[in-house]
Fold each of these.
Amino acid sequence: MDVENTQSQMRKGILEYCILSIIRRGEVYPTDILDEMRRSNLRILEGTLYPLLTRLKNAGMLSYRWVESNAGPPRKYFSLTPQGVQFHGSLQQTWNELAGAVHALTSISGRSTAPEAGEPS
Amino acid sequence: MNKILHINISGQVIAIEAPAYEALQAYLASLRRYFADEDGCEEIINDIEGRIAEVLGAKIAAGTPAVSVADVEEVAQAMGRPADFAREANAEAEGTARARGGAEGFTGGASTSASIPDAPPAGESKRMYRDTRDRVLGGVCSGIANYLGVDTTLVRALFALVTLGGFGLGILMYVALWSFLPERALDGAAVSRLYRDPDDRILGGVASGIARYLNREPKWVRMILIAPIAINAALALIAWVIFVFGGDVAPALISSSLIATIAFAYLVMWVVLPEATTPYEKLRMRGQPIDINEIKQRVQAGLAVARRHFEGAHDRLRRTSQAWQATPHPPHSGWHGTPDAFAATGGGGASESGANANAPYQDAEYVEAPRPFASAAERHPRDAGRDAGRARPSGLAHVAQVMVQVLLLAIAGAMAFTLFFALIALAVGAVALWPARAYLFSGAWQEALTWSTMGLFVFVPALGIVLWLFRRAVGARPSAALGWSFGGLWTLGWASAVLLAVSVARDVRAYEASTAAVAADVPMAGDVLSLVAKGAPPAYKGWWNDGEIEGWDLDDQSLRLAYVGVEFRKSADVDYHVQVAKYAAGQDTADAVRRAAGADYHAHWRGSTLELGSAYAIAPRDKFRGQRVEVIVEVPAGKRVRVDEALAALLAGPWNHGGSWGDDRELDDEGRGVGGQAAPRWRRHRTLVLAANTDYVMTDAGVLIMAPPPAGVASATVDAQRPAPQQ
């Protein structure tokens, strides 16, 4: 159980950064985010994503607009606010520092240390 | 056969099977609870609903006619349940307060806010909490159940049993736990399977619910519950038989306290266990995996009821929906959930699912949900009704209601029991006293009334109740025809009983005496009047009793009774006087006197011996009307009387004592009922118990007291005067 706890903490730490990074690349709606994260092997549950998006939006990091869809319910398309861009920048800096430090400490060269890919059990 | 609903999720209309709808609601409700304290809760829920709508819509588009429970499970699995969220986003320690929202305070580190209810952190040993989400009183039981991983209902039932059966010990435990356990909004991980089964119920469905929980047949549980009562009854029967046949030893009743315990436990379970009303709950109760075929069978059973609910609440819901549309929502176009828009799609939807739907439900019933779909304000009408009926927080009201039910049921049961055995007693009595018929009924009418009263008034309700129990036990539908016919017969029985009572009362309106003086054949001589009894007291030997019942006997010719009393009074003059007063009841004075006079009693006064019969005979034509014979002996002051053994025994006989005919009223000096009164005056037997062969002397005051026999003289006189002529 301890391992899972730590693993969970690790994932939790970079979750926001990853999501913000996805949104930074362009306007996306939640399903897109989920798909992309799954493709990258960093899975996340809807129940974790939506509250997170809402919190970020409430904090002013994100904004969204409604887009009607013929094939389903209307969708929220999220994009970063300038504040969010700035926020993302800070996180990116932190991440780079962290990654460098971890690389140095663990002597794993080359690839970025992707966190454990796995569904929460 | 399936029931299909059409629901509106985030503007999208989806066809969904009824149990799946329930499951979806439950899932959304759990999500709502989970995010309840979160800022922006509504928005989160809306977003999730939108996502669900997307997924389900994709399924429908892919060819599924209607969303099934399996689909909902899949969605819930994929999107995660609150427990999963908690694990993903757990806090390192409880109560870690992190500022939420706000640009400055938003650390972006742990994406946890103290407001999200969470499971205990993975890695720590699980602690026991009180569950604030699933509480009847304080959530103690559900917290314990969550910790142990057992059924919540089971813990509640055990607590209730310990409390009520253990002199309130459970209350102490509960309060202690209430104060010590910290609160936490748990997600109800303890799956509750213990329900009462409303479909298979004799009383409250407790036995079948327990049986389902244990995966056994209900009849076994019932047999275990009934066993002590049956054992008790059997033992009582054996004891009675033994007793009747003269035995002394009878098997003791060993299981009466067990009966009380079981009955009490049953009542507790009735109160604590919830009823499994919806098909989904029923499936959970039976512990079966959610299977489509099973659901089909279950839903079929509930179709008609649900339809009634829908039709009633449909209007209410539409009104709510229209009110809700005033709330600002993201703009939707093209997917309005209005009735008109729906009708266009609903018809299509219906025909799609027509293959599965019931024929009567061609126009597929839909629930128009105000947007967003599962907000707290809007409720599935059936859910609203059900939840209102099962309002958990008002547990006390429920308890009181059930207790009243059980009390009434117990009273009815006791009445039925009593009636049943009254019937048996009457039947036995009737058979035993068959020969007495001739002496009882004053006419054919009365006899007929008696039989009809016995049959309709006593037998019918007893039989009816037994039959009702039997039908319930085998699960037969309550039959209105049976109920009406039994009720009608019993009403006739009432009428018959009343008529019979009136008739009998009329028959005994008057209670009069026919008095005749007895003259001495041979003049009295001496100072002592000896009273002797002639003949032995009658005794009756029936087929059912061992020995003889003394005091009466009857055959075709006559009914002989030994209710003879002797009263001694002070004579007005210096002579002895003897009178025989025969009492009887009758419709009026003349009738009473006639019946009284008809009693045949032997009283023969010869010299200083008064011979009295041991019994008086009543002819069949006079009927039994409470006849009595009183011999009034007037003794001059200073003179004596004595009785012999036989007469003393007669007077002291058990049949002569114990307040015979009724209440003790005042009598006038002659011992007759005061004339002109309608109510008969039953005379309470007040014969002195006299010792045999002992002289009694009459005092001036009119009281008889014992006197020592005068030495020699009186005995000789007595001996000489005791020829006892036979008649």
Amino acid sequence: MRVLVVEDDEETAEYIRSSLSAAGHVVDHSSNGKDGFLNALDNDYDVMVIDRMLPALDGLTLVKSIRGADVATPVLILSAMGGINDRVDGLEAGADDYLIKPFSFLELSARLAALTRRPPLKAEETVLRVADLELDLIRRTVIRAGQPIDLQPREFSLLEHLMRNADRVLTRTMLLEAVWDFHFDPKTNVVESHISRLRNKIDRAFPKALIHTVRGAGYSLHG
Amino acid sequence: MAEAARILPSRWSTAARLSLRFTALYALVTTVAFAMAYAFTDYEITATLQEQLELEERILRAVYAESGLDAVASEIEKLYTLNVENQRLFYLTDAAGEVISGNISHLTWDGSGFYVDLSQIRFRESPEIEASGYFVRAVSLGPNRLVLGISASLEAEILESLAAALVAGFVAIMLVGTGAGVFVGRRAERQLSAISAVLGSVSAGNIALRLPSDRSQSSDLRHLSAEINSTLDNLQKLIESQRQISTDIAHDLKTPLQRLRQRLERLGQSSDLPPETRTEIDASIDVVDELMGIFHALLRISQIETNNRRERFAPVDLRGVLSRIEDAYGAVAEEREQTLIARTGPGPRVILGDEELLTQMMVNAVENALRHCPDGATIEMSLEGKGDAVTFSVADNGPGIPEAERKLVFDRFYRIEKSRTSPGNGLGLSLIKAIADLHRARIELSSNDPGLRLSVSFPPAGTTSATAPI
């Protein structure tokens, strides 16, 4: 994908650029808000990473300006401010995701991937399928290899989320936010515990595991 | 009097007791003074009347010596004719006891003392008699006996008026004294309790509060207020500089930590690493992440403490939050065969606050319990209370916290000795306290017999202190 990174800190910018390039993406870099704005308008990107604190221009103002210019490219805000309302402010300004520094590259990468996924399922698609696993959104049923599986509501949501993002890595933080609406780092293994339960129901009795642990990053569901 | 004041219920204020003591003192002094005034007046009047009798005696003696008994008799006649309502008493008898002159027909008096009452006297004519008695003086004129008397009624009247005036004065003094005492006492009390309320609020955490300067206070109270305010200024500076220190440290160390992490990550990305090295690098990154977690938590706490964004509060349904937590942590509890129960009771459980922070606070409380309790323990989360005065509690049947340490655990980094080696960084409870303080809720740690009970009590809306600017 084509990524625009608007970041004034050299080391961070370099870190992001080199890691994304190594993963096969094309990266453009602007070190201030004005250049970033012009770049955003001139070129077509799949996703933008914008630092909240830029010289001469506040990152949120930049996002608002970009949105004001009718650019709908997903934006992830990078910020050293993990303040109580900073995330909300960022989302209200038009951003799609908010990541606090310091961050791990895998987290950034997973979130960018989630932002650039294909448009959501068309309205008629009410059944998600991965390999021999079927999830019916209307009937709230799950069937694997013809066998019905009984899931609790939260387990269902978790599986749904994994299936919607099949083949992509979902970090623990992303899952916590998406499935439980928790916006902080828990000390205990909430996600692990639920994945473990889900695995017991979805994978254990079957020859091929669908839920995979991605070392250091999170989880991924794929056939 | 002092004893009387002491048996009063002790919850009477100092002002009331002081006022009462002074009133008792005034009453005592006034009574003594008035009693003395009365006594002196009585003595003076009596003395004056006696003098008058003495003067008359001398005059009549002179008349007797010059002109004999008949002259005295006619003098007396003149006198008692002028006499009104038998205010005067004249009784002249000869050696045999026969009455020669006077307005008395019979007198029973042995000559001792200065006073006879009506029962001892029989008047010749009995018009109105005012007096109840007479001051008398016996005079010997040769073999004859003269008794001069003057009614005590005048004295009685004077003393009566005096007494009335004194009593009225006493009552007035008592009323005014008590009233003034109560008034002044109440005012001082009000001012003192205003000061005390502000100080109480400050020690509860509203470090920015100051005492208002009140023109109506006496100058020493104003002076005291000013001194207290300047002490609070210093205290505030001290506390803020203290907070600033850990924030500054966290801030300054975040960037180098970030760089360290990036380097380690990059190192781990090389493809030709032996597996042990890769494991080491992963473990090192975990340690860096742990450090990051500590700094994040510290900064978070600092932000919450200094950034009072109460105007951004919105209604939060605590029931919903609790239900999400039960849902998420049920699985976690299961892994160690612990039981997690949620109990919310009837009624709405909606308060004004920040949902994200409240969620984090409640999660911290539950995580703490899950982590510190042994396998198989039971942890119960509950929401109780009336209306929006909700209390959130997490109670477990684990090892609990010794009473002596319960106050200290909210300090940053405090760890109870026995749990020093378990995961967690000691900041969980500090964060809980910071969030509770932001919402003006009260935290309490108590024994759950066995185990620990953590309670956070939210105040009902509208009871926040009117003088707090925060």
Amino acid sequence: MLSPEIGTLASLRMHMSRPFQIAALATLFTIFSLSLWRLAFVASDWAVLALLPLAAVIGIGFWPLTLSPWKARLHIALRPESQWGKRLTGKIRAMVFSVAFTLASVGLFAWQALRTTAPEALLLALIFFLSALAYFLAQNLLLRHFHQPFARAIATSLTTWVVAIPATGMIAWFVWAFAPMPGTMLDAGFQQALQIGLTQLPPRGGWLSTLLSVPFGYEAVKLWVVVQLQDYPALAWLFSLDVAFFSFILCRTGIVVAQFIDTHVLHMPPPSPLGEEA
Amino acid sequence: MTLSEKDTHGATLAPVQDARHNPSTKMESFWRAARSDVEAEGSGKPARQSSLAPWFWWTFAIMAALSILMSAAALWRQGGIQDGSGSLSPNQRIASEASAAELESLLDTANRSAAEAVMQQIGPMLDAAYQPAYDAIPAYTDFHYSVWGQYAELGTALIGNVGDKLEETLFDDLDTHLESVGAKLEIVFASTFEQELATGLGRTIASGTGIGPMTAIAITDATHRMMVTAPVRVVAVVGGGAIARTFARRIAYRLSVKAAANLSGRWVMVGTGASGGALLCSWTGPLAALCAAAGGIGAYLVADYGIVMLDEYWNRSDFEDELRAMIDDQKAEHRAALENAVLARAIAVQEEAIVVVEQHDFTLRELSGVGNAAICRTATDLVSRYDLMRGSLRQRNPGAMQALRAAANELAGDFSIRRLAREITENLEEADHITITSLVIEGNLPTDQRADRDVSGHLHLNDSMIAIPRINATEDSGFRFALETEVVLGQETILNYALAVEQHLRIWRNLYFGGNGTVEIFSAIDEVDGLEPEIEVGLRLGHDDNTSSVEGLSTTPIHGAEASLSLGLRAVLLPELQNAPNCP
């Protein structure tokens, strides 16, 4: 039988590797979903099915991140005898935010998955992994000082900003320095630029292509503007920054997916800071 | 036991009393069961184990398996395309753009493979095209070694239709065959180019992917340019008629030589025949003369026939060998012309591919001022150094030339500036060739030997020798030679000169004087700008009394009279650069 000290150490070691496991699992899950989407999209609009698991995970994972802090604040703010507690449950708000974030993140991911090059995809996957990992490390630290759900909420916000800001710079620089832009844009007119952007979609058409024509067309117009105003180099940086703001969504999604896996997949009681079992 | 918040990851909320009285909808109970961050309602029991884990794992496994399977299927289909056994519709491929470097490598490999394939086909195709000519050699030889044939060849040479029989016999369809060779080589080049492109695309792009639309456009553009650039079939080759005329002239010349050589023998036979005929025809009375003449002609023909038979016996194989050798030479000329055409085509296709690649993609860095500033600084430096050399020979000293060449070679791999670098390298090939266009040699002979007598001689400039015509020299003013030359110094900057002068005396034997020197061209040019500077060097002319000719003259005197040598230099004007990047 293990001594309490060894059992505590083993438990601690296991719990220290847990954030890595969760972050890796979250990254792989997202990668498989998006790669399946990309492989299948050229053939059929049914490829959208590949995004449904990711959307479900994001929606389910985002829900408690929105609802729990609201309920905590409501609990503090409302008087115990107030009847408004029956109405102000926060579920509608959480539903709206969850749906909005899920649609935005899945839509952005789907678009980026179709146009990203391999090096850029690697960079984004790394940022995704780091944000998930950093979230757990931050939460473990903040739990010593804050109650739940505030520890989780603060860890989410803090990790997003801490990881996303340098990631924004990295992605912006990468896009500015290495992302290839079609040479035909240099001499293209406005309509021709739009056409060039839309040629990246498969020629079969479909409702998905119609939806995706919006971001692809927007990207092409943006590049056309940068080309026309190439005498103002700052605009090129703005182009890159515009693309890199995606990194904020990326980091938050990494946290959300990791949160889901932690809560619903690899759920286990965490160790107390002093190694004491409950 | 109440669980601590650390155990539940949940809010330390008091159970919401109202929740116990509100009926739960299916969705609410589902969400409650899914959430582990809410305490069990007053029961003190631990949160229920999540039911989503199995769903998650199954989904994860299915997505992973499907991704791997679809990637493998795409790989297999890609392999089918390379084997030609399958086809991949555009809808089944994932768009992936090749980078400019990848595209350039693809096009370069395809171009090289196509050129090599064509080069390998030239020999066999030309052999096949010329084989009928080789096969017809015996037939023509039979014609050549016949009395009628020889007279026909001489006759056609006289009236100007040289080579008709040769063309008809040996080179009847050669023009058609050669055109066919050109067309087939075109097909080989184009098909190999396209096949190599397809193979390269299969290797370069990641498995399960096809080429993106931009890359497809670039490939199509490059292929189209390849099809219309410098086609091999239009290369100018000598046709069968011209070949036949060339051959026939040589054969006719031989015939005329033979005919002249054998003429005496023929006339002997004519005489014998005529006299013999006269004797035999004496019974014919008044017609005896005609009969004798006929006998003479007959004897002439018999003599010719005999000569031809003998000639054939001794020389037929040599004649056939000579014909074969002439055809071999012609075939070799054709081969060289076609190979040069293929090389020219490959170079032209490469130039077109560069244009395509440069239009393929760019980065914002290249477009913006930051990245371009570095390129522009480098380009400006190169252009300014080149422009200095453009119109000034003085600036083309070996050190500066070497430095500029080295800088251009270093930048040959830089995508943004390599066209400029390549253009500079090509233009500088002629830059250091200096031509001496004029010479003025002034001076006088040593005092003791001065006289009002003509002088002549020659001047050596490195390996060139320039004859100096005879001119009049006076005792007081000496001599002045002014010559126009076109001596090319090449890349040498050291000029060794040696002057040999012969004084033409009337009574006594001529006297000989010599002198030499060395000058470094660019040191002599000094501060003179332009492409046609003049330099002046000095030398001493000393008398050499140990020689009797200007060729054996020693040009290294210790003492002597001063003379000067003015050289007019000329350098090629370098063309303006066309490929400098657009910089502010």
